[in-house]
Specification:
single chain; three-stranded antiparallel sheet; two-stranded antiparallel sheet
Length: 178
């Protein structure tokens, strides 16, 4: 089975990108065709694709609230697992309790450049479920078709996302298992 290889730059805006060309994940803990994991990848991909350059960290609770508040079965652990799979360094850190932040510990995800998350997610999707999805639709998994599908995923809204998930289920790609 042919899986196209996406070619992405290693340096953008004079910043070295450390996205993974091949995602690192444990197949026993990560079901690549599960509803939650596909949802996580698509929503993170959309969010990071439209994010401003220069934005290099987000509080975990804020990201979860913004992207997954309608999907209560998605946990920070699942999102973190996807994010850690697409870059070559540790993304999480804790800001200790200080009087300036209200005496609370805050957990963050941070990255060097948003495109390393975007490119890593593209590779992750292509190497786990996106090519299978193209084949289920009767298309070949070529670079052109993959690029077109990535553009569709980047530009879709929530109603189109629901339609996509229904089609994936009908065609037997997506499993309801997390």
């Amino acid at each position: 089975m042919y899986i196209p290889t996406l070619v992405r730059p290693a340096i953008v805006d004079n910043v070295r990108l450390f996205h993974r060309p091949k995602p690192k994940y444990n197949p026993h803990k990560f079901h690549s065709h599960g509803l939650n994991n596909i949802t996580i990848m698509i929503r993170l991909y959309r969010a990071f694709s439209t994010m401003e350059d220069g934005f290099t960290m987000v509080e975990k609770d804020v990201l979860m609230s913004k992207l997954f508040s309608d999907h209560r079965t998605i946990s920070k652990t699942q999102v973190g697992r996807v994010l850690e799979s697409v870059v070559q360094y540790r993304l999480s850190f804790q800001k200790n309790a200080l009087s300036t932040n209200g005496f609370t510990n805050r957990m963050y995800w941070r990255w060097t450049h948003r495109l390393e998350i975007v490119y890593g997610l593209e590779n992750f999707m292509v190497q786990t479920w996106l090519c299978d999805w193209l084949r289920k639709n009767g298309e070949k998994a070529t670079i052109e078709n993959v690029e077109e599908e990535l553009e569709v995923l980047r530009d879709m809204d929530e109603s189109e996302e629901l339609e996509l998930f229904e089609m994936m289920q009908e065609k037997g790609l997506m499993l309801m298992r997390v």
